[in-house]
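Hallway conversation turned thread

IA: we were arguing at lunch whether anyone had actually written out Argininosuccinate synthase end to end. Turns out nobody had. So, for the record, here is the sequence (403 residues) and right after it the structure tokens. Reply here if something looks off.
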Amino acid sequence: MTKGIKKIVLAYSGGLDTSAIIPWLKEHYDNCEVVAFVADVGQSREDLEGVEQKALASGASECYVVDLREEFIKDYVYPVLKTGALYEGSYLLGTSMARPVIAKAQVELALKLGADALAHGATGKGNDQVRFESTYTALAPQLKVVAPWREWDLRSREALLDYLKVRHIPTTATLEKIYSRDENAWHISTEGGVLESPWNASNEDCWAWTVDPKKAPDTPEQVSVTVKAGEVVAINGKAQSPYECLATLNTLGVKHGIGRIDIVENRLVGMKSRGCYETPGGTIMMAALRGVEQLVLDRDAFKWRQQLGLEMSYVVYDGRWFTPIRASLQAAADSLATEVNGEVVLELYKGHVNAIQKKSDNSLYSEEFATFGEDEVYDHSHAEGFIRLYSLPSRIRALSKKK
């Protein structure tokens, strides 16, 4: 253990783990001062209600609640959306994108308060410990890091509840709350419980936000999304901030059961894990952006954007936000997105979102060239020469074999 620490800033949620961490830090680090830092990234208002009182009751000297909602969506989610990043083909990186903005604000508070160390409640099995600590290292390597889950002997929910009970620290956690959830403005994830066996089908308890697609409205609903430079700027013609755009689309997506995935993913630390993720508004946004790209980006540009998205998905998932590679990928994506302007009409229906209308002033789609009817702009005979040159390596190879 690192001794001589006088003040620790803890990333605090008000949940069971971090409620136990506050007294544990004071007991094991010479009765040091523990400051609770709460990041508001759009989680349930119920989770934030009374969080300051909870922190103080657990032994924190102070509790700071910082509103990061607009910064999270504008400076972290929107940049990643431009790249089209999907981790392992389906995960929209909801937890991954939130960690760097949280850790950055935590570092800023620690430096402002003159703290010696930072602490988090991530376990030694997950990705979040890497994401938090990589950010700490990039922004304030002089600060010490305390990760209680890698030090203490409290290994179960029962042990944590008993620990708090002995110390007369109140908690709303119970043994019946078997699912682990992470919630922010972009998504909510559910892990544990029946999901620990991949042979168990998910049940309704595994979904927290969205309506079951089977029970969603029988009538489709259309929504118009306006895109400028690869960013969603208006919904149904109404200009809104990034966070407001997302909130509007979340409401629609939840209603129609949009954005559910049930996946087994490869964690950075080596094991596989299963989770149910709900990203309603984000799924609609992704469909809108890709719809405009289909009109604007040529074949090679679109291929390059796909490659950027694949690489960015691993960079973000692995917690490498504050690195040169992330900045480089972002610069390339920003460059490609300069002409990604347009409007898309999407149809929402029972868990599905489809772009049914799209337009852009920068569109490369030409009805004159694409028509199956008669046209005066395309000479079909030109295709013969193109095909002969395109297939020339195959021709030479075949002739060589005959010799």
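OS: looked through it. Residues 179-296+338-357 form a domain with the Argininosuccinate synthetase, chain A, domain 2 fold (CATH 3.90.1260.10).
IA: good, adding that to the notes. The longest strand covers residues 33-40.
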